[in-house]
Write a structure and sequence with these properties.
Blueprint (H helix, E strand, L loop, with lengths): L2 H11 L1 E6 L7 E5 L5 H9 L14 E3 L5 H5 L19 E2 L5 E5 L4 E4 L26 H7 L10 E5 L4 H7 L2 H9 L1 H29 L3 E5 L12 H20 L4 E5 L8 H6 L4 E2 L8 H8 L4 E4 L9 H14 L6 E3 L10 H13 L2
Parallel strand pairs: 3-7, 7-8, 8-9, 9-10, 10-11, 11-12
Antiparallel strand pairs: 1-2, 4-5, 5-6
Length: 362
């Protein structure tokens, strides 16, 4: 450990206050004496400028309002009050399109109930579903109930579950969705549905920005499996990218940034993500080749990576882990620390603060 470096920046790491946190009824997160605020630091990164220190994903305020039915039924509702998270109380229920979800405790997540897809024929999807009436949701009440979460010092990162591909998979069987993407007789129905969905999401994103002042849209849309993507890059470019780009533009025109959440091994379609103009992607841990992804799109997309530290390491070992992270990614000033998964050393963010403050000041 470099004690001189720690001493040089330790005053900036001091806690000077607290932020209200959505991760529990009385949860709080530390406010530190950083050289610039977390918001300013993330702004630099998203503008492709060098930040003052490495941005940490936990230093945006997480927000997943329960007013959106998908959040509660999928066990991912984060707001002031009791959160609905994996391992907690969740009974499932209908999402915003009326699809029934069941919470499965052993997996820590929710699954669509049974094997009875809502849409039987994508070429006539209008016969099976109607779009939600966003005006019927109590936006003003939700905003007032959560106003203590929002602060000018931090960005607010808001969830949108069930994006494009995931929405299709919730409404149809997996096999039928994959066939529809490549079957010329069905593709027009997919395009028509995604076009309508993008218009709907644009309205939803506008309300996220207008009522809550959200800064980053965390768009959940898993497109991978353990071995690779669910479809080819060509299929992604034809069927997904035009609509993903529209949602990115819905964010950018409001001064928001777009984060893609897409689990699975997705290196084959990573360039496609970049083509859509996304701002941030945190690849699924323990399944992706981080070095490969950084080489492929690290100059275009801010990527979030974990360190190789573990909770049981000594401080000296964790410092060495932070130095390894710096050598691989951290020294360039264009990555985000994913300090959430997998579990890491409790001081890893602190050590990387010291190391990057020194490195980025040069």
């Amino acid at each position: 450990m470099d004690q001189a470096l720690i001493d040089k920046y330790s005053d900036e790491w001091k806690q000077i206050g607290e932020y209200r946190s959505p991760w529990g009824v009385d949860a709080r997160e530390p406010m530190r004496n950083y050289v610039i605020t977390e918001r300013e630091n993330f702004e630099r990164l998203f503008r492709h400028e060098k930040p003052a220190y490495i941005p940490n994903i936990t230093e945006m305020t997480a927000f997943s309002p329960a007013i959106v039915p998908d959040h509660k039924v999928r066990a991912w509702s984060l707001e002031i009050g009791e959160p609905h998270l994996p391992g907690g109380k969740c009974d499932g229920g209908p999402d915003m399109f009326g699809v029934q979800w069941d919470y499965v405790p052993v997996t820590g997540g929710s699954m669509v109930h049974g094997d009875n897809p809502t849409i039987k024929d994508i070429t006539h999807w209008e016969d099976y579903i109607s779009f939600p009436d966003l005006d019927s949701w109590d936006w003003e009440g939700s905003a007032k109930a959560n106003e203590a979460l929002f602060t000018p010092r931090r960005m607010t990162r808001v969830w949108l579950m069930n994006g494009l591909n995931e929405r299709m998979l919730s409404l149809m069987n997996f096999r039928d969705v994959m066939v529809a993407y490549v079957d010329e007789d069905q593709q027009e129905g997919v395009h028509r549905f995604f076009d309508k969905l993008c218009t709907f999401y644009d309205d939803l994103i506008d309300r996220y920005h207008r009522y809550y002042g959200c800064d980053v849209l965390m768009f959940n849309d898993d497109m991978g499996t353990q071995r690779g993507p669910q479809f080819s890059p060509d299929t992604a470019r034809e069927m997904i990218v035009p609509y993903l780009r529209r949602i990115v533009e819905s964010c950018h025109k409001r001064g928001m940034y777009f984060e893609l959440h897409s689990c699975g091994r997705n290196d084959i379609i990573a360039p496609v993500f970049a083509e859509a103009g996304i701002d941030l992607w945190m690849p699924q841990e323990n399944i992706n080749d981080y070095d490969l992804l950084y080489r492929l799109i690290g100059d275009k997309v801010a990527l979030g990576f974990p360190t190789d530290s573990t909770p049981g390491m000594s401080d000296e070992e964790a410092w060495e882990s932070a130095e390894r992270f710096m050598d691989r990614f951290g020294k360039y000033g264009n990555v985000i620390l994913n300090s959430t998964f997998p579990p890491q050393h409790p001081r890893i963010a602190e050590f990387l603060y010291y190391l990057t403050r020194e490195a980025y000041a040069e």
